[in-house]
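Predicting holo structure, iron/sulfur cluster bound.
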Amino acid sequence: MTSTQARRMRRPVLQAAVDAGAGCTKADPDLFFRADGQPPATWQAQRAEAVRFCHGCPARAACEELALRDGDGNSRVDDLVRGGRSGSELAALRERQAQRVGAAIAADEASDTEWKKLTSLTVDLNREAGRTPTRSSGMPRQSELQALQNQRIRNLVAQISQIRSARRARTGWEVAA
Ligand code: SF4
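Done. Tokens:
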């Protein structure tokens, strides 16, 4: 997939390409992020190595496009590499292509009710997982409340997993699903 092709694709296809081909799953994840307090000289060398690594990744174009749509990178903070670009390069590219990226994000949202459902389920899951069940008078025992919460979490995980697998299968990435 080239960058030109990636720009025309909707998010599920881009995400499936990254899920299936991301080279960084076989690399040290720390390579792509600047450590707290890391001196500029060592970060520059590491950043160059990460960029080289990305340029050998089959999912690079899809990854770069997702990074642009996700708002990754910051012109004031030089602390990451994604899609073969530093954070400041991503921010500059997004600014140059603001109109195109904005239209792509809007098209993703408009065409993808399933993605909205996935996002909503993920929010529900995070909320449920972060909640501490508390009992008051007339309610079941604490252990029962905990069991009910665990069941709700299992249901949400199952729904998310089912949608993700179906999306990947539809976009031709069955192996990754
Ligand atoms: S382009 Fe780089 S950051 Fe993106 S998936 Fe590939 S190796 Fe990972």
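Strands lie at 81-82, 85-86.
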